[in-house]
Amino acid sequence: MMDMLTHFSVFLVGYTLFSAASLAFAYVFFLPHLKKNIYSKLACVTLLLGLASLQYCHYLSLTSSFDALANQYYLTCLLLVPASFYYFSRFVLFVDSTLELKLVIHLIPILVSFFLPDKIVPPVAFMIGSAYCLWFVHLVLKLRIQQGGYVLERFFFGSFAIIVILALLLVLMLPYIGNTIFYLFYGGSIGFIMFLVCTVVIIFPEMLNDIQTATQVTYVKSTLCDINVDAKKMQLELLIQQDNIYQNEKLSLSYMANLLDLSAHQLSELINTKYGFSFSRFVRRHRIEQAKRLLLAEPNTSVLAISIMTGFQSQSNFYTAFKNETKESPGQYRSSRLATS
To answer: Among 150, 253, 266, 315, whose Cα sits 20 to 30 Å from the Cα of 223?
Structure first.
């Protein structure tokens, strides 16, 4: 049994190393719809590098005589990961914030760790990390967009919080369970978190953008103070209902904002406050509604053709979005409605 767990943990270590490199590359160089700055990019790379380093130390501990908990580099990474997670979360949620001197306080535990006994560092690191993670989860789940979000979003953040609490309990039990058990289950937890993140990026790539938008509306001063909101909302409705602008597969927040003579932040806030959605979800819902009409009005038109007609860049994106909205695939929706008509 232990050998099987060890092999599985080693597999997760390799998976984490590959996923960390892929996610860092994607965040820094791609995801154009996401608001990023140099601080969030640096924090992202540091966070993923720290997690990869921890997993590599777990691999060495499980396959050789290396003992990570007695190694200063590993102990430093244990404290580096929570700090970089905090910085990344802060600069992603509050994208316009800058690096202030008071933020340096979050690096103090890393410096102090060099003077602490080895046995003290893991509990301290996990308690700090748990506090940061629960702060992040609490902040996100308070957002209106998340309260009405998809099951996938609630499952992701709920799972994230549970894993954090279990990891804290694990390190507190370290004197009783032994180092090998700790490496197995902590390595497995990191691997599972990476799997969750990669799954969300693939299935719901706009989640982080939705969270950013909701955060700006909820916690940041309004950008609509000098704007005739009702008039702009009417213009937006005309673009949607008469011009069918959502059919443009390359439609972006900045492009639509220019049409309305607004900034991207102003349009984002307008849509979120008036409709309760982020820009991406707002557009996606109109595309899905049009697709539902076309699926029934044109039964001989293929699903691929309808996905293109409604502005989706690929059939897979259309399928995923349609199922998230209706709980049915496009084909199931069409066949069930036509059968009862």
So the answer is: 150
Q: What is the pLDDT of residues 4-31, one digit of tens each?
A: 877 887 888 889 999 999 999 999 988 7
**341 CA to centre of own chain:** 41
CA distance 97 to 102: 13
Task: Name the residue type at position 22.
Answer: S
Considering only residues 245 and 143, tell me which one the structure prediction assigns the higher pLDDT.
245
Amino acid at 191: G
Helix extents (H) in 142-263: 144-147, 151-172, 174-177, 179-203, 207-219, 229-241, 253-259
Question: Measured at the alpha carbon of residue 312, what is the angle toward residues 264 and 223, in degrees to the nearest 5?
Answer: 15
Same domain, 155 and 293: no
pLDDT tens-digit map of 24-44: 999 998 877 778 889 999 999
Of the candidates 78, 58, 74, which has an alpha carbon nearest to the alpha carbon of residue 5? Answer: 58
Burial state string for 313-323 with b = 16 or more CB within 10 A and e = fewer than 16: eebeebbbbbb
Calpha distance 50→54 (Å, rounded): 6
Q: Which residues constitute the domain of residue 208? A: 2-213
Average pLDDT over residues 99-124: 92
Query: DSSP character for 120?
Result: T
Q: Are residues 201 and 81 in the same domain?
A: yes
For 107, the token pair is 């690096």
Which tokens is 47 given? 């966070």
CA distances from 117 to 34, 69, 217, 273 (A): 42, 11, 45, 51
Q: Which of 213, 248, 277 is the last residue of a domain?
A: 213
Residue at token pair 């939705």: 210
Residues 309 and 330 in one domain: yes
Whether the CA torsion 108, 109, 110, 113 is positive or negative: it is: positive
